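Much of our argument rests on the idea that a fold can be written as discrete symbols. The record that follows shows the chain in one-letter code together with its fold in token form.
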Amino acid sequence: MASSLSPPKVNFEVHIKNRDKLLKSIRQHLSQSSLPLHGFVLLQGGDEQTRYDTDHLELFRQESYFAYLFGVQEPGFYGAIDVGSGDSILFAPRLPDEYAVWMGKIKSLSHFKEHYMVTTACFTDEIATVLQQNYQGSGKPLLFLLHGLNTDSNNFAKPAEFKGIDKFHKDLTTLHPILTECRVIKSELEIDLIQFANDISSEAHIEVMRKAKVGMKEYQLESIFLHHTYMYGGCRHCSYTCICATGDNSAVLHYGHAGAPNDKTLEDGDMALLDMGAEHHFYGSDITCSYPINGKFTSDQSLIYNAVLDAHDAVISSMKPGVSWVDMHILSHKVILESLKKGHIVVGDVDDMVTSNLGPIFMPHGLGHLLGIDTHDPGGYPKGLERRKEPGLKALRTARVLQEGMVITVEPGCYFIDALLLPAMNNPEISKFFNQEVISRFTGFGGVRIESDVLVTAAGCYNMTKCPREIHEIEAVMAGGPWPVKKT
């Protein structure tokens, strides 16, 4: 299938606005702290990496905070923002003459200045000199460097290093929380980039849906997706490693890694869980579709699918500024358990099930996460907001209250994972809720996840993902029907 989409021209104003937002926030912080409004925000971009000890260069992708502020595609750059004047300075590596022979034309500093819309461009070996010349305060110039914890990975952001840094004062605490908070609320230009990533990824998911057939391999579904997003969307990067799980693999939450490489043969009667999202100019998408490989839902598949879809829709209907994400997560558990009770998989009082933490047995992950330049965008747990300790809630990637301008994934799921179900069935406190006879029918079923990327608006929210979700829509599209489904 050809595409109705083509990659839009990137508007680098998005990065000017991002820098202005940071500048406003950091100046406000300094004023409130009775500190002088001078110094430099300094970030070091990413470097190219070779594969272990070889000369094979891995495909470069820019460090995310640097991408947010400067939008630079090339490796080896630094970027500074003068807190006093607001000027932005890009520092490019000084390339040897032979670069032109192997890698192409050496771009001028004026090219980088104009293309990336910064105040000035210099070479990286001039960082110390240029910053000292531009410093407006007295004494040693001050650098605000990026250092802080990513609460999803538990890794720390790496502060910039350069020759001559000992001539500067270093502040390692101010920048990270302020810049992270800037990334939480998206501008209209950022939303446009995320929307295109969603549009091309939604279209690619539909293409996979149409072409999936019994006897294919999981990696062929991944290949169809990657081809479509690159061929028609110019998306060279994915937001994350594709999860193309079928049959019992769909109960493996992060399937698709090197040890489980999307290589099972698709079998008649299998459910597929396909979690794939393309990246457009650094900004990502994160979409999951679940459906039977043969294009027709059985009654058991319909039961589990609709349980998850009802939770997905209930959350989206409830989302608006001021709503607690923890409450949305609990709501998703409640809706899924109510459906499982109607299907006689569990028995008893649903509120008691929620109190007894039965929900995380079927849905061990969090309801969703902030999305932007990273699939798991930072800012889920700002200072003062503690991660909950209860089962299920401790898996949440954020416990924030929703704000207008957040983009967050809504991804409820229901899985039959032996490693969780078997101990639960032997636990006297919760085993009473299981209908052992019916649940045994779902051994090897796998799981269902439905994931959309949702923008919080002033009035509520907007679903940026455009995939078939209702069972009749999925079956119609898989049978060759048009999408959107024509109303009769």
User: Anything to note?
Assistant: The mean pLDDT is 97.
